Write a sequence for this structure.
């Protein structure tokens, strides 16, 4: 047998094996959507679970994501990819369908969440150290823009908080140390954008003097109002993005600092706008209260007494009820507020150290993480029955792919 | 008031962590990593609050650290823990932070 015929046989053999492998692999792949998937952060172990909210189980666990304390997630518009913002500056792109980590970069020393642009092509990350915002392409995580948060005359950089996406390809964020709001307009950035050619095409509008120590912010569901919590003084700062020429003004002048009664063991999150009709529900700062505010005139309508200092105040997607969790040391209780009677109608004890709550896309279920019980529970939001329990290590944030199509999430 | 507290803190130096049960120590470490960690980072590398790593605490006054934990900060979001922690527990926590042993 000469060398050539050996080669031919070897080649044929390899082809057959490859063909078999391809058939085997394609046979294993089930075609499925991703609209009922989500991610649960395991903060201490640097891992996440990919969850299925239809049959309520964990599909897989992915590790190697860095320091996930205070981690958050946004989703690509096709709801296939999760972008995970880690505390240590890590930015990871995760494929929810294959369970594979596509890419992970460490883009700063210390970061606090991010946002995805309206068109889904850009990912922005808010950084504490060095203070500023970095913007990446969502396809390959290459850097498009670096916006250092310089302020004052000493060229100091501020920590950046409350970064959200806004309509017309904008990102809005606040400078913690500087007391400013910046709006970065990326509408002139196209597919060929790179770090080299982007800087002159990004328009940044700065609003100084918005108040002392802005610690978090939210944008209303319609992308109109950007509202900033101020730690250093009373009231909230509001930017109406339909009327940017009016600048940032103060609303709810008695909110927070001036009337604070208790030490704030955990800063409340202003992640989502809990809206029901024309009322907004806000966590009070340093008080055991949820505040009901009219969105027409930004006046306080009612203070609802609660079990503790609220951390997350989340409206069920239909707005009929608002679910609230609380700061340490009252963090083992979740309460439900009826948005018609404005009363607490239910109290639940889902476990120790409740970190986060996330509604299923249309709100029939709520997922609740209990960090110190190493458990995630799923409740029926109409009957309050516990319908599933999932064991996870120190679970914190829960993020479902339905967020992909909501401004500010 | 502040002076009195500092004097009291100084006078308690003879107390050791032996007074704090093993179970309570675990609870304190969990609190430190996860609750304090929400501002100072899981590894104490810092976040909205300053870093509390062994290196970053070099040269800082022990008494002042204890005071801030008990009384909180007037200008920053650091809350007072005097209703949550005893002075002995605060001392123990500061020692652990200064030695970098928070696991």
């Amino acid at each position: 047998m000469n060398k050539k015929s050996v080669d031919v046989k070897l080649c044929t053999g390899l082809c057959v094996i490859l063909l078999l492998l391809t058939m085997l692999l394609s046979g294993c792949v089930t075609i499925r959507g991703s609209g009922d998937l989500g991610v649960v952060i395991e903060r201490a172990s640097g891992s996440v679970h990919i969850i299925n909210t239809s049959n309520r189980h964990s599909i897989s666990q992915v590790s190697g994501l860095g320091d996930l304390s205070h981690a958050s997630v946004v989703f690509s518009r096709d709801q296939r990819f999760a972008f995970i913002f880690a505390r240590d500056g890590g930015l990871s792109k995760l494929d929810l369908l294959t369970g594979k980590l596509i890419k992970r970069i460490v883009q700063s020393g210390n970061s606090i969440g991010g946002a995805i642009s309206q068109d889904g092509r850009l990912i922005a990350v808010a950084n504490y150290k060095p203070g500023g915002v970095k913007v990446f392409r969502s396809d390959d995580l290459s850097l498009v823009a670096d916006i250092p948060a310089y302020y004052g005359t000493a060229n100091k950089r501020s920590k950046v908080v409350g970064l959200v996406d806004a309509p017309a390809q904008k990102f809005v964020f606040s400078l913690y140390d500087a007391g400013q709001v910046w709006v970065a307009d990326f509408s002139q950035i196209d597919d060929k954008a790179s770090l080299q050619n982007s800087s002159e095409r990004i328009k940044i509008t700065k609003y100084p003097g918005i108040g002392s120590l802005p610690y978090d912010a939210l944008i209303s569901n319609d992308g109109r109002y950007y509202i900033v919590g101020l730690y250093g003084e009373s009231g909230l700062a509001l930017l109406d993005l339909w009327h940017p020429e009016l600048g940032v003004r103060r609303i709810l002048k008695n909110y927070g600092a001036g009337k604070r009664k208790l030490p704030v063991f955990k800063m409340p999150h202003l992640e989502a706008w809990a809206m029901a009709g024309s009322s907004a529900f806000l966590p009070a700062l340093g008080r055991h209260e949820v505040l009901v505010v009219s969105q027409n005139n930004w006046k306080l309508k009612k203070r609802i007494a609660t079990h503790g200092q609220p951390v997350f105040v989340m409206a069920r997607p239909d707005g009929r009820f608002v679910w609230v969790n609380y700061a340490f040391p009252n963090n083992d209780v979740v309460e439900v507020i009826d948005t018609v009677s404005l009363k607490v109608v239910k109290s639940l004890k889902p476990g120790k150290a409740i970190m986060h709550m996330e509604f299923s896309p249309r709100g029939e279920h709520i997922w609740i993480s209990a960090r110190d019980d190493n458990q995630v529970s799923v409740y029926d939001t109409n009957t309050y029955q516990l319908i599933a329990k999932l064991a996870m290590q120190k679970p914190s944030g829960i993020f479902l792919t339905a967020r992909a199509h909501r401004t500010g999430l | 008031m502040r002076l009195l507290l500092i004097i009291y803190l100084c006078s308690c130096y003879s107390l050791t962590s032996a007074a704090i049960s093993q179970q309570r120590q675990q609870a304190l470490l969990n609190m430190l990593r996860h609750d304090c960690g929400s501002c100072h980072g899981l590894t104490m590398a810092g976040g909205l609050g300053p870093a509390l790593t062994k290196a970053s605490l070099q040269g800082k006054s022990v008494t002042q650290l204890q005071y801030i934990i008990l009384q909180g900060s007037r200008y920053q979001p650091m809350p007072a823990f005097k209703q949550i922690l005893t002075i002995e527990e605060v001392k123990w926590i500061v020692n652990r932070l200064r030695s970098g042993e928070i696991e």
